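> forwarded from #structure-qc
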């Protein structure tokens, strides 16, 4: 299985795209979040992913840097369904508040011809906390991260041989998520900025964490591979090296700070 980072930045970035990614296996794709708009199409194109092959989508929460790219996906998919150029069905998973929002917005935003596919071939699927679904033929468990801002879900995907990939969304881990995050082979976690620059970027005011925080957490949870995303973009050229040199002091597994469009092989043992 491959993880393709489409975007790695926080909501306000201009030097990269907002955090969203694709999991790929056997030419099947699972898109997680859409970033803030039409840029999703550019990122997919540059990643060499044919968006018409995307049939499984998950939206973590309703913030515009995650949701609005999904509206673009819905628009494109319905438009191409109408032209007989998109085959099969689409499933968009999210908690009830998000599916309700998409269900309310899209008929008003799409043409009548496009909107006819909503609920018929494009399905909005509300998932509950701890609900399991089969996606890319793997068990995925969605879970409530208990955000104090907007209700948000993360997910845990089984990778086989008891290994798992856990995505904590775009807020710091809390103990509700322990059963999923602990001993993950892959942990995807936000890090707004370096700990050494917390005074500049004020991550805690925004309910985010630093590289050091995320690395200490992953060390404590015995994670094997830690991937940091949803960062600031003020020094994007050196982000990877700066974040890595801070993080390696606190985390002794494999630390990844991907750039947009970077591809990671999620090899299994
Ligand atoms: Zn966000």
């Amino acid at each position: 299985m491959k993880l393709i980072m489409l975007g790695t930045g926080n909501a306000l970035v201009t030097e990269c795209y907002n955090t969203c990614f694709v999991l790929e296996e056997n030419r099947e794709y699972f898109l997680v979040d859409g970033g803030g708009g039409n840029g999703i199409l550019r990122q997919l194109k540059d990643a060499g992913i044919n968006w018409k092959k995307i049939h499984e989508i998950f939206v973590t929460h309703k913030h515009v840097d995650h949701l609005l790219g999904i509206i673009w996906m819905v628009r494109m998919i319905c438009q191409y369904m109408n032209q007989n150029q998109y085959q099969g069905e689409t499933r968009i998973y999210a908690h009830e508040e998000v599916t309700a929002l998409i269900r309310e917005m899209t008929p008003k935003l799409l043409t009548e011809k496009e909107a006819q596919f909503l609920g018929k071939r494009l399905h909005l699927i509300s998932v509950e906390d701890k609900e399991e679904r089969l996606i890319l033929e793997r068990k995925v468990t969605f879970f409530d991260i208990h955000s104090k801002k907007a209700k948000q879900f993360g997910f845990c995907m089984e990778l086989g041989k008891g290994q798992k990939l856990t995505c904590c969304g775009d807020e710091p881990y809390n103990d509700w998520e322990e059963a999923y995050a602990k001993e993950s082979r892959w942990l995807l976690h936000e890090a707004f900025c370096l700990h050494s620059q917390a005074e500049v970027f004020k991550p805690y005011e925004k309910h985010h964490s630093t590289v050091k925080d995320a690395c200490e957490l992953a060390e404590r949870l015995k994670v094997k591979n830690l991937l940091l995303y949803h960062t600031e973009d003020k020094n994007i050229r050196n982000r990877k090296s700066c974040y890595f040199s801070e993080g390696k002091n606190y985390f002794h597994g494999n630390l990844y700070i991907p750039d947009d469009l970077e591809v990671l092989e999620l090899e299994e043992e």
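QC bot note: Residues 11, 63, 65-66, 170, 230 surround zinc ion (CB under 6 Å). The chain has one domain: 2-265.
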